[in-house]
Amino acid sequence: MPTQVIVSAGASPGSVVRRRTPILEFERNLGTGLKSEVLKVLRSVASKDLLGRGPACGKIMGERAKAMIFGAHVIVYSKDAAADRAFFRDVLGFPFVDAGHEWLIFALPPAEVAVHPAEEKGVHELYLMCDDLKVQILALREKGVRCSDVQEARWGSITKIPLPGGGEVGLYQPKHPTALALTSN
Question: Which of 51, 70, 131, 138 is 20 to 30 Å from the Cα of 181, by its Cα?
Answer without folding.
Answer: 138
